[in-house]
Design goal:
It is found in: Chromosome, Centromere; Nucleus. Belongs to the CENP-L/IML3 family. Its main location: nucleus. The chain is of the alpha+beta class and about 350 residues long. It folds into two domains: about 15-180, no CATH class; about 185-340, no CATH class. It is about 30% helix and about 20% strand. The chain is built from eight helices and 15 strands. It has helices spanning about 35-50, 65-70, 160-175, 185-200, 210-220, 250-265, 270-285, 325-340; strands spanning about 15-20, 25, 55, 55-60, 75-85, 110-115, 120-125, 150, 155-160, 180, 225-230, 240-245, 295-300, 305, 310-315. The strands form three sheets. Strands 1, 5, 6, 7, 9, 10, 11, 12, 13, 14 and 15 form an eleven-stranded antiparallel beta sheet that branches. A hairpin with a 3-residue loop joins strand 6 (about 110-115) and strand 7 (about 120-125). Helix 4 runs antiparallel to helix 8 and helix 6 packs across helix 7. It starts with 15 loop residues before the first strand and ends in a 6-residue tail after the last helix. The relative contact order is 0.16.
């Protein structure tokens, strides 16, 4: 087998994930999950994929699975703790990283499971809900959890359906938890984009950036923006299903400024959506606020988010404008998804 080449990008980036909500995992003891224990879970899951049995029932994946039949034979399965992005290195993605028994779950973002085939590697990431909205890892505080349970509210999956089904069944059988798809209402997409834009418009001192700096950060981070609109028209034309609204990066700073003016007049706090809705209604006679009009997806240079529960975070090279505010904004973005999965989101 060829030597394993570590991915140079933190595993949360540059991958389109399907999102799922998880109830707490019943671990059966107060002992936290460690790499040594996760190695045993990886071995058990490998045996299942290789055609062994789960609770007396044969559940291995056969060659009749079209997606997996094209990626060759199963090579390895790893299950390890996922360090925080600030402390992660490419070597953490190698097989040897699983031998690190000093790593603590309390200092990690969650867990990552990788099933590597000859031509493709699939992964699942389970994120913890332990850090609140902190950007400084020294401010981490652990919440007291019910004895024998570990809380990973958000699961990000990059697996074909049949493989994901086997993994979900393994989690349920092993940890006696529940898993369900995580979907978002249109308003959540709008509010998420608005918060991200507001977050990257703040300086390291917590004060808003000046107009010139904010415009540069918005152009370099958000870049072009795509808003996909859907129509809830059961008796309408089948030809009218969605519409795409494309915004150039040069237009976004002006839209935000215009939206803030509209917000002061109408006592609202959604500058991007206020400006977009006003423009579209004035030029296309389409009311984005109508109950039958839905925002289905928002895509920009930083992330892509869809109501069906699809997410992609984009990695940007260090040293670019707004790197500090972008890192904090991305952390808050993920924490928002975790809170929503845990059922504590205020957005409905």
């Amino acid at each position: 087998m060829a030597p394993e080449i570590p991915n140079q990008v933190y595993p949360l980036y540059n991958t389109t994930f399907s999102l799922y909500r998880l109830s707490p995992l019943h671990t059966g003891s107060n002992e936290t999950l460690s790499n040594s224990r996760l190695r045993e879970l990886a071995r058990q899951f490998h045996d299942i994929l290789a055609g062994e049995v789960l609770r007396g029932v044969r559940v291995g994946l056969g060659q009749e699975d079209d997606a997996l039949a094209r990626v060759g034979a199963l090579q390895t399965v790893t299950w390890r703790l996922l360090p925080e992005e600030e402390t992660w290195s490419a070597e953490d993605e190698t097989e040897m990283a699983n031998d690190d028994t000093t790593m603590s779950l309390a200092a990690c973002r969650g867990m990552i499971v990788t099933a590597t085939y000859e031509k493709m590697a699939y992964k699942v990431i389970l994120l913890r809900d332990e850090r609140g909205d902190y950007t400084d890892t020294s401010m981490v505080t652990l919440r007291a959890e019910t004895a024998g349970f570990q809380n990973f509210p958000l699961m990000l999956s990059r697996m074909p359906g049949s493989l994901r089904e086997v993994f979900v069944n393994f989690l349920v059988e092993t940890f006696d938890n529940r898993i369900s798809p995580l979907q978002f209402p249109s308003r959540y997409l709008i509010d998420t984009f608005e918060r991200y834009v507001a977050d990257i418009s703040m300086g390291e001192d917590g004060e808003p950036l000046d107009m010139i700096e904010r415009s540069r950060v918005l152009r370099n981070t958000i870049k072009e923006t795509l808003v996909v609109v859907g129509f809830d028209l059961p008796d309408g034309s089948a030809a009218l299903k969605t519409a795409e609204i494309n915004l150039a990066r040069e237009d976004l700073p002006r839209m935000i400024a215009r939206g803030k003016m509209i917000g002061r007049q109408e006592d609202t706090d959604s500058p991007f959506f206020d400006a977009l809705a006003t423009y579209i209604k004035g030029h296309l006679a389409l009311d984005l606020r109508h109950e039958k009009v839905k925002i289905l997806r928002i895509a920009c240079g930083a992330f892509v988010l869809g109501t069906e529960g699809k997410l992609k975070l984009t990695h940007m090279a260090g040293g670019e404008d707004g790197e500090s505010s972008r890192g904090a904004a991305t952390r808050r973005l993920l924490n928002g998804f975790i809170s929503h999965a845990a059922g504590s989101s205020s957005t409905t």
